[in-house]
Design goal:
Elements (H helix, E strand, L loop, with lengths): L4 E4 L8 E15 L5 E18 L8 E4 L1 H11 L1
Antiparallel strand pairs: 1-4, 2-3
């Protein structure tokens, strides 16, 4: 799955968020003879965003998804 970009409309933050996700995955678990685990070929079957909050202002009610193009435009306007 593609990483989702977010923006806090309360403070303008585009870079730091506390995100809680639930994921269901399928993966190949390979254990060495010594018992060390290596996880390979992990596939995300389902992903649910449960909670998100802005790390700057703590607001979770004003965080919205944005496209990469929107995020770049907002960042350019800030400079």
């Amino acid at each position: 799955m593609t990483a989702q970009r977010f923006r806090c409309t309360a403070c303008g933050n585009l870079t730091r968020f506390d995100v809680v996700l639930s994921r269901r995955t399928r993966a190949f678990h390979h254990y060495t003879v010594g018992g060390e685990l290596s996880v390979e070929d992990e596939e995300v079957l389902d992903e649910k965003l449960e909670q998100i909050a802005c790390r700057w202002c703590g607001d979770g009610d004003h965080v919205e998804p944005v496209s990469a193009e929107q995020a770049e435009a907002v960042a350019e306007d800030a400079t």
